[in-house]
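for the writeup, i need someone to sanity check this before i put it in the appendix. the sequnce is what the collaborator sent (i think, or maybe the updated version? ugh). structure was predicted straight from it, no edits. if anything looks off just tell me and ill rerun, i have time this weekend
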Amino acid sequence: MIYWIWLNTIDGLGPVMQRKLLNHFKNPKNIFDADEYEIMKVKNLGIIRAKEIKNTSLEKSKEILDKCEKNKIKILSIYDDLYPNQVKNIISSPTVLYYKGEIRKNIMGVGIVGSRRCTSYGKTIAIEAASYLAKNNITVISGMAKGIDGYAHTACLKAGGYTVAFLGSSPDVCYPKEHNILMESIIENGAVISEYPPETKALSKHFPKRNFLISSFSQKLLVVEAAQKSGALITAHFSSKINRKVFAVPNNIYQKTSSGTNNLILEGAKIYLNPEQLLEDEHILKSIKKFEDINQIKLKSENQNYKNNINSKLKNDDNFDLEKYSSKEKMIIESIKEGTKFISEIMNDTNLNEREILELISILELEGVVRSIPGGRWKIT
């Protein structure tokens, strides 16, 4: 695992470029052993970047591996059978995940997200939906935040279900702190998963990536309550982009915590009226069965075609269509296309505030459009 950790911790080397390297060299050890001229053969990697990769050592990776063993943190690579193919085939998915607990083969489930300051109405819906899913052996996925997330995890556990929490910190750091008991219960009856190595604190810049993972591992997403600017809406945005079905709970048009969900419905999300809607599709029902017969055959078939799928996605990624992005995303892309930029420079070019840029640029980074480089600057990949 040390070479997987090494690949995953190279500064400025995101999942898209990691995939290109893996596609060329087959495994991370081969990348580590290659010389800079061989690394240069990978598309979009010049001599400077190749030297940076070659000059990184295993020291940091050894420290991380030691901390994982000390804190009983397990590591999941993208080549592992427990890493769902539906997530593997998203080009911006992390190549390495850290987790505590147990990951089961049918981990794909239904995401439940919403406001931290939820109403009793939202709480009731989250509890009802999570309990129903648990009783039907469907994984309940959320982010272990206060409010809707916490109620969804708790209700699932009380109903004897399996739940997964994706974190904005490492799996050995509890955030928020008051969810310590909940976190331990999730580890005992499910898993807490993160792309961040041990001893990583929860930072605001981590949460868009956490939200992306919630979307990726969710066959469907239920947004219970959400204000206009919230992490739940970012999660819904990701879900729509990767063709996951989004359900939103309608509510009082004058209620602040409902403005985001009502607008999701206006934009095309399915109106959520009862938990049975979360079981309607046949592929959901198949995904919750044990992977013994037909699912094992499907898994082998998908693994055989995996490299072809990745090659195809990479080709599409190299020539991204600007028209599919929102007006604000376009402004950021146009700004960075002129050359490497600091956030402050992007603010000057676009007249967007820092929070908007950080949220949107995190989404663009996950989609492989931009990447951060040393010094706090951003560039087009």
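Residues 77 and 276 are 34 Å apart (CA to CA). The chain has three domains: 2-98, 100-287, 323-380.
thx in advance!!
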